[in-house]
TrEMBL record, chain A:
This is Xanthine dehydrogenase, molybdenum binding subunit apoprotein. Residues 19-126 form the Aldehyde oxidase/xanthine dehydrogenase a/b hammerhead domain. It comes from Marinobacter salarius. It comes from the Bacteria. The lineage of its organism: Bacteria, Pseudomonadati, Pseudomonadota, Gammaproteobacteria, Pseudomonadales.
From TrEMBL, chain B:
InterPro entries: 2Fe-2S-bd, 2Fe-2S-bd_dom_sf, 2Fe-2S_ferredoxin-like_sf, 2Fe-2S_ferredoxin-type, 2Fe2S_fd_BS, Beta-grasp_dom_sf, Diverse_Oxidoreductases. The lineage of its organism: Bacteria, Pseudomonadati, Pseudomonadota, Gammaproteobacteria, Pseudomonadales. This is Carbon-monoxide dehydrogenase small subunit. It comes from Marinobacter salarius. The keyword Metal-binding applies. Residues 13-89 form the 2Fe-2S ferredoxin-type domain.
Length: 747, 167
């Protein structure tokens, strides 16, 4: 069923966003007594710090505080999984974004001028800039630059390869993609006059950030509040702490609120990126196209600090096992190495889409060798809904994978393209599939809570800890609440992302929608009961005749009490219901492996390749999703479309190369993300056969749309030109050279 | 490889311009950007520093009716000019038309880039009103959005194009 665009909710927040009044953290430039902070970054990708002298900076006009490692009140380390990154470096810098000192001053200009006169003596160290040789180089941390090595095995891979009729082996490379959220990292730290600090900052996990910040600032957890204010985009890039530690230390030192807002140059230089992956994939099948054996050897460049690298490696390997397909034996392994090439970490897709790019390309390569239709090859290998997942774990699909494939096969994009009169543009259609799990997975602690109450003003107030960075969470919550309570959007207030409110866990891993649905299903009926009980006392009507509806409580089709009256005359504070629940895992079997709730997508792409320049234009994208129920259609559509264009950027233009550990792009003129002129028309079809009795009818679709775009585009390029591109982003010069070579061979 | 982001200081100059109907008169370094003047004024948040090199469009404002990136306009260039931002345009009927189209078609997610997008669209509509042939998709080609993939924006533009061809 095609997901047709539907009118969005004209919420106040939407109108405020359009008019620029929405109040992002970095818009708070006029708090009383506000100071501006700036951070001194390393001049070297790898060096010993011999001396940091701030004496001249302290004398500069307008400067209120200059801090270095010695001024970090608590733990001078940050990191979600491994706390290995110095807040302010003590004796060594490991990438060009490493922070050495921070300044608070009356103006931004003064703060930056003070940075210029901090004297730092460095003793440069050998730069580890090649992931391939990183393990032979002197270690950035501990004993070795090998941060993690992981392997998943199933069956006897060598024996299975020996029985293959066809084997394909290729090298694949994916780029170091940058999140390029429009609001660069920033926010304000405000002393609370009680020794504590309130952070208003763009981030993804207020509660977890508050815990880390308390450790760094040497405060009790109760002394740190994080208000994850509306965030101007995140995509994983604001999962780790960014400016918060420096802003917090400066706020404590000066007793004044401190705003730090990185400019784009600093954001490019310091921000986390997507892991570049270099991998060799070997895949074999029998004459009928049944995949028997699959081997992956991958190398992920995690940069200078661990961040979420080990978790990304796990999700990469999970996807490298080709989870949609039944494979007799596989051996999938990956190494994660430290280098001085920036820091890589969480990014929409989380390693999965890098693996899917290669897996799907391998399937096309097998089909070509067998002279078989690539869709037919997929059909005979796809799992059924009753089979376990690729790692033997219990999984739950929301539709049979073959149904998704069949829809993709029926896409109108397969119609032969009309070639232009002068044959300048070569057109072709291709497709790829992808799977995506919801939740943190792998047995990691994964819980989330929420709260409903009636406010003193008579508003139905829903609170979750998730941060709002544009996912339409408030709209989705509103839709679900209206559906359950029969009320209207105007009755509801949604409050997100305050670390004083309920802890929902991180806003990542496509987990929010699942938990929101689960928690609401728990708390709303209980809230309804409490409200009804109070209304029964106030109206004298029997409880079972009362029900909630638009604006208030009803009996016999007539409103008998408004929510406001109920709040005024009743005890609104008594209606509050809190609940927290574990993220859904397999009811039986090994719950420590992979993710239980699984989503699928098939993306069909049509491209036109310019024979004169080698440039690729994607003219159409058609996605078929099987990801459970759609709660808020405009939000669902926007997530799929937005993620897909991020995937298009990764396929065609985005990369952050390094030389000697320094990023070669420092702003959006060199790092090219798609503009409106670069994007195709998109269509999204939703397959939702979820039975009404399903306990988990709602899945999170924040990452699904990126999964299969890059391989679909490369498949379409091959259909158009006969050339398969295995290194992303697609290099127009390479395509042109190959096209020229073809023409020479022909003539 | 670091490119300079801060201009060299020079002697302050007195600048007077009209901002959303009010007269702004202040001493600033002539190389201060219009973006910094606006954000420093305490009343403008719609123009945002997304790149400071004129690439992302998040600071788009109208300068004498023309859409420009506020980060590339210097203080000395705005003297005597009229500057309009999303805040000031909010009451205008064509801005309302743009706002409704953007909201109805869900052309935004995080919304950080959206005021710049709206100003570019208003500028395009006004040029059309003046009889110029303007493709609204081209009018927003300089506005980067990282969330939506531009799907909702394309649909909003289709709505705007339909309405403007009816009138």
């Amino acid at each position: 069923m095609e997901l047709k665009p539907q009118p969005g909710m004209a919420e106040t927040s939407v109108l405020e966003r359009i008019e620029g009044r929405f109040g992002y953290a970095t818009d708070q430039q006029h708090l009383p007594g506000l100071l501006h902070g700036a951070i001194l970054r390393s001049r070297h990708a790898h060096a010993r710090l011999l001396r940091v002298d701030t004496s001249r900076a302290r004398l500069m006009s307008g400067v209120r505080a200059v801090v270095t490692a010695a001024d970090v009140p608590g733990l001078n380390r940050l990191g979600i999984v491994v706390r290995d990154q110095p807040v302010l470096c003590e004796d060594r810098v490991r990438y060009e974004g490493d922070a050495i000192a921070a300044v608070a001053a009356d103006t931004v200009e003064q703060a930056r001028a003070a940075l210029e006169v901090i004297d730092v003596d460095y003793a440069p160290l050998a730069v580890v800039d090649q992931a391939e040789t990183a393990e032979q180089m002197s270690p950035l941390h501990g004993e070795s630059n090998l941060l993690a090595r992981e392997a998943f095995e199933r069956g006897d891979t060598d024996a299975a390869f020996a029985r293959c009729a066809v084997i394909v082996e290729h090298h694949y490379q994916t780029p170091r993609q940058m999140h390029a959220f429009m609001e660069t990292e920033g926010g304000v730290a405000i002393p609370d006059n009680n020794g504590g600090v309130i952070f208003r900052v763009g981030c993804q996990s207020g509660h977890r950030d508050a815990e880390q910040l308390a450790d760094i600032l040497g405060l009790k957890p109760s002394q740190v509040t994080v208000e994850a204010t509306p965030t101007g985009g995140a995509f994983g890039g604001k999962d780790e702490l960014t400016i918060q530690p420096a802003a917090g230390i400066l706020a404590l030192q000066t007793g004044s609120p401190v705003l730090i807002h990185l400019d784009r140059f600093e954001s490019c230089r310091t921000g986390i990126k997507r892991h570049p992956v270099s991998m060799i994939m070997t895949t074999g099948c029998d004459r009928q196209g049944r995949i028997l054996a699959h081997r992956v050897d991958a190398l992920l460049d995690t940069g200078a600090y661990a961040s979420l690298g080990p978790a990304v490696l796990e999700n990469f390997l999970d996807h490298a096992t080709a989870p949609l397909y039944r494979i007799e034996a596989y051996s999938v392994s990956g190494r994660l190495v430290y280098t001085n090439n920036g820091v890589s970490g969480a990014f929409r897709g989380f390693g999965g889409n890098q693996a899917t790019f290669a897996v799907e390309s391998q399937l096309d390569a097998l089909a070509e060798k067998l002279a078989m239709c690539p869709l037919a090859l997929r059909r005979i290998n796809l799992r059924t809904v009753d089979e376990p997942g690729s790692r033997g774990q219990v999984v739950r699909w929301s539709a049979p994978p073959t149904d998704v494939l069949a829809e993709a096969g029926a896409s109108p994009l397969w119609a032969p393209a009309v070639s232009d009169a002068r044959r300048r543009w070569l057109t072709g259609t291709g497709m790829a599939m992808g799977a995506q799990g919801n939740g943190l997975g792998d047995g990691l602690p994964d819980r989330g809570g929420g709260r409903v109450s009636l406010s003193a003003e008579g508003r139905i107030r829903l609170e979750f800890g998730f941060s709002d960075y544009g996912q339409n969470l408030a709209e989705a919550i509103t839709c679900l609440v209206c559906e359950t309570l029969g009320c209207v959007a105007g009755d509801i207030d949604v409050v997100l992302g305050n670390s004083r409110g309920p802890d929902s866990g991180p806003t990542s891993a496509s987990r929010s929608s699942v938990l929101i649905h689960g928690v609401l299903a728990d708390i709303l009926p209980r809230w309804k009961d409490r409200v009804r009980d109070q209304a029964a006392v106030l109206t004298g009507l029997p409880c079972d005749q009362l029900y909630s509806g638009p604006g208030g409580l009803f009996a016999g089709g007539r409103q008998v009490l408004s929510y406001r009256e109920l709040a005024e005359k009743g005890q609104p504070e008594q209606t509050r219901v809190d609940a927290s629940q574990a993220f859904p895992v397999a009811p039986e079997g090994n719950q420590l492996v992979g993710r239980y709730l699984q989503l699928q997508i098939a993306t069909v792409a049509r491209v036109a390749v310019d024979r004169l320049t080698g440039r690729v234009r994607v003219t159409d994208l058609h996605h078929i999703t099987a990801a459970g129920r759609v709660i808020y259609p405009p939000g669902y559509l926007g997530q799929i479309e937005g993620a897909a264009i991020m995937g298009l950027g990764m396929a065609l233009s985005e990369d952050m190369p390094t030389r000697q550990g320094r990023y070669l792009a420092d702003n959006l003129d060199q790092y090219i993300i798609p503009t409106l002129q670069d994007v195709p028309d998109q269509r999204v079809d939703v397959l939702d056969n979820t039975p009404t009795t399903d306990r988990f009818p709602v899945r999170g679709v924040g990452e699904l749309g990126i999964e299969a775009v890059a391989p679909a585009i490369c498949s379409a390029i091959e259909a158009a030109t006969g050339i398969r591109v295995r290194h992303l982003p697609v290099d127009a010069g390479y395509l042109l050279a190959e096209l020229c070579a073809q023409e020479e061979t022909c003539s | 490889m670091t490119r300079q982001t801060q201009p060299e200081p020079c002697a302050p100059e007195h600048v007077t311009f009209e901002l959303n109907g009010d007269v702004i008169s202040q001493w600033v370094s002539p190389a201060t950007t219009l973006l910094d003047i606006l954000r420093g004024s305490g009343r403008i948040t719609s123009a945002r520093a997304g790149c400071r090199i004129g690439r992302c469009g998040a600071c788009t404002v109208l300068l004498n009716g023309q859409a420009v990136p506020g980060c590339l306009v210097m203080a000395w260039q705005v003297s005597g000019c009229t500057v309009e931002t999303a805040e000031g345009l909010a009451e205008a009927s064509d801005f309302a038309q743009v706002r409704d189209a953007l909201a109805t078609e869900s052309a935004l997610q995080c919304g950080y880039c959206t005021p710049g997008v709206a100003v570019s669209l208003v500028s395009g509509l006004r040029q059309q009103q003046n009889g110029d042939v303007v493709d609204l998709e081209e009018a927003v080609a300089g506005n980067l959005c990282r969330c939506t993939g531009y799907g909702g924006l394309k649909r909003a533009i289709a709505v705007l194009t339909e309405t403007s061809s009816e009138t």
